[in-house]
Amino acid sequence: MGTHNVDCMRDNEEFGALSRHGKLENEVLLERTSPNFAILRQHTLLHRVIVDGCFSHPDSSMAFTMRSLVASLQHAIPSEGLWDRGLSTVDVQRGGRIRMTPKRRSRTAPSLDAATKPRTVPVCSTSGRVNQIERTIYKIAATSKNSQIIHLKGIVTVGQRKPRPSVNEQLLDKLDLVADRLGLANILLQLVSTDIDPKTGAGKRSEPAVLRDWAEKGDVVAYKIQYTVEWKVPGGFGSPETIVVRNNHQNEFYLETVSITSSHDGSNTFFPCHSWIQSEKLSTYPAAERVFFSNRVYLPSDTPAGLKDLREKELKALRGDGKGLRKDWERIYDYDTYNDLGDPDKDSELLRPALGGNTNLPYPRRCRTGRPPTKTDPNLESREEVGGRVYIPRDERFEPIKESTFIDSCMKGLMHKLAPAMLARVKNTNFEFNTFGDIDRLYSEGLQSSFRSSSNHKRENSSGVVSVSSIPDFLRQLPFINSDDTFSKYPLPDLISKDKFAWMRDEEFARQVLAGQNPCAVERLKAFPPVSELDPEVYGPQQSAITAEHIEGELEGLTVEQALQDKRLFILDYHDLFMPFVEAINKLEGRKTYATRTLFFLDREGILKPLAVELSLPPAKRGERARKRVLTPGNEPTKYWLWQLAKAHVCSNDSGHHQLVSHWLRTHACTEPYVIATHRQLSRLHPISQFLRPHLRYTMEINGSARMNLIAADGVIASSLVNSDADAVTKLMFKLVGTLSLESCFTPGKYSMEISSAVYKQKWRFDMEALPEDLIRRGMAERDANSRHGLKLLVEDYPYAADGLLLWSAIEEWVADYVNIYYAEEATSIVNDYELQKWWAEIRYVGHADKKHEPWWPQLRTKEDLMQVLTNLIWIMSGQHAAVNFGQFTYGGYIPNHPCLTRKLVPEEGTPEFVDFTRNPQSFFLSTLPNPEQATAVMMIIEALSAHSPDEEYLGERKARWSSERAALDAFQKFTEKMRSVEKEIIARNKNPKLKNRTGAGVPPYELLFPRSGPGITGRGVPNSVSI
Q1: Which has fewest Cβ within 10 Å: 76, 176, 786, 969?
Q2: Per-residue pLDDT tens over the stretch 90-108
Q3: Quick one: angle between helices 932-945 and 436-444, nearest 10?
Q4: 895 within 8 A of 940, measured Cβ to Cβ
């Protein structure tokens, strides 16, 4: 800083100090304090003359001009000497003299009209002052039409601070409060107009204003905290539809909304921000200036001139440059392959192939993190964590209430899982469920009374129960040990709470194919016997071993051909999916499986009944016949238990398909490219971006966690907790738990993600993700113009399809109403929307690059094309995900009902295993299911995944004031009312005694597609997004 400016600042400091002591009029003393103080005296004297003139002729144009000049002179005095030091000029007529009076400290510096600002006058110039002031007066007079000052007042809503801040963050919070109170570091907000500033060629900008009362509200504990801010802008400023925010604090903060009201006409502008604002002190890409647009949207061609550069600048910032390691505070959206699922540097057994980017193992893309490659293979990404967890853009992370709920849910499940894990390690003993009572006690008495040793050593007590008194003291002190010395109990799944033995009935087994956790896999049988599409040279004859003799006795007098013609035969076919992996899976320790087919018959009452299960193993040698076995229902004890074992293997296949395909692949992995492309190519100003926002929430966070934990080799639940500032006991708990992933909990083990890739390669199509098209492809529905929704269900009582079509039709109508608001009838309105075209092209050619040449991709040329695409997206992110996610604990929370893993094959006569089976079929059945440690692990996972967060937003709900367009708000209100109608219809269906798949003795009502829900495990609720 130059000497002249330093002198000037010192002059103003002394001026302020003397003013506060009442010595302003002692001009001799003032002039002696500094050679430059005469400048301030000239300001004061001229100020007196101007004020005298204004009050003498208050209505004259001269008065108006003079007041403007007063403002400019007031601004010409350096702010360090007056404003920031607590002084301001006050226009008070007291004997024709102006006085300097103390003013209450404010953090908002005066904002001036560019036209009134004396830009030609140096702040501390000592020459030519009078002439320059005169020129300024003439300039003001010439531009008086724009000199009206408008006051804009803002209410800024900031989200709750982190519920579990680190020690460092707590310290920085304290420093920020002190710095803010002293005015050393503030949060600044600046308005940008839709009008162009001719001097800059960009939108007009206000002076930055300081967020008020941050320090004063530093101790306030609330979910949301509101602050104020004020701006002054000239009358010709234009419409302020953008806010630029700069955070000079040390810590980030969550900016939720800003609402601005004009003093001129009372108009209000609303900014839905919902973003973390990082400190300017961080090295970010790009600069720390953050841009937020109002809730008014524009197609790219209609963007106001003042916002065009900011629209493109913000998109460019979100795309990044595709280089370097991403930092956890950044907001960069980019793509990469699934090359981070293994950890070969840790152990060669943890090597996993990269998915995506090759024809053999195609897969959708995920968010790029930029982590370094492994030492073992440069094409694989290391599992090195950034800040304790995998990178995702900062704004995609859980909000505080969601994060707190999710962590609490994980900890609750972890405590349940810890008991068997700890006991197995502490006692060096494997534990088994020896009776069904052992499983039942998980829900009635807790974990402690459920575990019995599988060894032949002496029991801990006469009953074989592991006593809590035998557990080391440090374990007994953990929070999952109750005061009565029993472990915490599991919540009872709704299915078992209604009928303890429902899982054993064939009708319930078949009902869950239509209304359970995986209702989108069953197909109508179109040819008999079923035929494989696999290579017969490798996998044996293609024809199924199921014959007419196996099933015709159960077809109500029909032949197989007649049942096919009447469209009453259905199949759950996992043969071709699992057969290529069966041999490898069966070599894994504690894993045994088949490739299964299950046939069903629809009886006269519309109830689905199982007919036969085919269990297939690959040929022992190439060219030999596959080993196939067909089992059918029977009441004779041996046949009955063999049938129960066959159904368990079907459920094991179904569980793998459900988690790896129906759930993870279709609703999580395939959705992530839609989220990334929306942020990268559709500006917040775009109406389709505004439309999609609630359907993107939390998806990248839950997917990132899954990549680190659930779908990764050697995954550990909640790795962010392990690497946090957790206490030593908590970290020990995680170490004792060991690995927890889909590989450890589901039959396919280390081949899980390769199976998922195989389905993506062979069957996934974007156009077939539409519910009506999926039902038609599977043969479960036919087009019928006379039927509701234009479809006729072949199984009328198909709860997933029936309720799903209600949601689909409502979504389709809402999409059409919204699109019609913003796009004209001409096809060019879609084709010429370059942001929209780039968005769809990026989804196809980058996000799903391995499928980019497929001919079935929709072309985005008309409004109808756009409506089809958006309806598909909303359905997948909301209804489809809800249908396969929130029923997991209801049906999988009781292991015998839907086992996730099988450990033994079905015994064959003449073998030692068959002897063991006939001696104690119940014990053999239980030893086929997951052991207690495996069972409680999967129960932990699905317990956490089945629960709703308190901040969940459901279909038909959005944050307030999401749009400024009345037509859009009215259309959404119509959609909301439609959701209430859907709820009423679902309630009525669940009371209809004719619909036996959703009502009756012991039958849970089908509510998975009921739009709203409360928090927790409810078995209902359709969130807007894939949020868990």
Answers
A1: 786
A2: 333 333 333 333 333 333 3
A3: 40
A4: no
Rounded alpha-carbon distances, angstroms, from residue 632 to 426, 522, 610, 774, 902: 44, 19, 8, 29, 19
Q: Do the Cβ atoms of 884 and 1028 come closer than 8 Å?
A: no
Query: Cβ–Cβ contacts within 10 Å for residue 387, how many?
Result: 12
Task: Using DSSP, state whether 243 is helix, strand or coil.
Answer: strand
- Residue 26, CA distances (Å) to 22, 57, 515 in order: 9, 30, 91
CB atoms within 10 A of CB 360: 10
Kindly report, residue by residue over 971-990, the tens digit of the pLDDT. 999 999 999 999 999 999 99
Q: Quote the CA–CA distance of 380 and 344 in Å, as a whole number.
A: 9
Both tokens of 687, joined, read 């109406």
Of 43, 668, 898, 948, the active-site residue reads 668
CA 579 – CA 544 distance, rounded (Å) = 13
> Which residue among the candidates 649, 663, 686, 848 is catalytic per the annotation?
663
Q: Tell whether the torsion through CA atoms of 373, 377, 381 and 386 is positive or negative.
A: negative
**Closest listed residue to residue 572, CA positions, set 646, 663, 502:** 646
Among 827, 856, 857, 828, smallest CA distance to 841 is for 857
- Annotation says 686 is catalytic: no
The two beta strands, 187-196 and 209-210, are: antiparallel
Question: What does the pLDDT read at residue 660?
Answer: 96
Respond yes or no: is residue 885 known to be catalytic: yes
Give the three-class secondary structure for 822: helix
CB neighbours of residue 960 within 10 Å: 7
Strand order of the β-sheet with 569-573 is 523-524, 569-573, 595-602, 608-617, 627-631
**Is 308 exposed, middle or buried (CB count within 10 Å of its CB: 0-12, 13-18, 19+)?**
middle
Active site annotation includes 987: no
Number of C-beta neighbours around residue 280 at 10 A: 17
The size of the chain, in residues, is 1028
Strand-strand pairing, 569-573 and 149-159: unpaired
The answer to whether residues 803 and 983 touch, using CB atoms and an 8 Å cutoff, is no
- Residue 679 known to be catalytic: no
Number of Cβ within a 10 Å radius of residue 153: 13
Question: How many helices (H) and strands (E) are present in the chain, helices listed first?
Answer: 35, 24
Amino acid at 200: T
Closest CA to 892 of 655, 544, 621: 655
Count CA atoms within 13 Å of residue 277 on its CB side.
27
Instruction: Tell me which DSSP letter residue 946 carries.
Output: T
Evaluate if pTM is beyond 0.85.
no
Q: Which residues contact 251 (CB under 8 A, 6 or more apart)?
A: 169, 172, 173, 176, 279
For residues 180-194, b (16+ Cβ closer than 10 Å) or e, as one string? Answer: beeeebbbbbbbbbb
Left (φ > 0), alpha (ψ -120 to 50) or beta: where does 1012 sit?
Answer: beta
Reference 339, options 386, 393, 378; nearest CA is 378
Q: At a CB cut-off of 8 Å and minimum separation 6, what does 150 contact? A: 232, 233, 234, 235, 237, 262, 263, 264
| Reported confidence tier of residue 407, pLDDT bands at 50, 70, 90 | confident
Q: Among the options 416, 881, 898, 948, which is catalytic?
A: 881
> Quick count: other Cβ atoms within 10 Å of Cβ 326?
22
In sequence order, which residues have a C-beta less than 8 Å from that of residue 166 and are 6 or more positions away?
724, 725
- Would you call 518 a catalytic residue per the annotation? no
pLDDT in tens, 929-939: 999 888 888 88
Q: Which of 885, 897, 931, 1024 is catalytic?
A: 885
Residue 491 φ/ψ region, left for φ over 0, alpha for ψ in the -120 to 50 degree band, beta for the rest: beta
Q: Which residues contact 988 (CB under 8 A, 6 or more apart)?
A: none
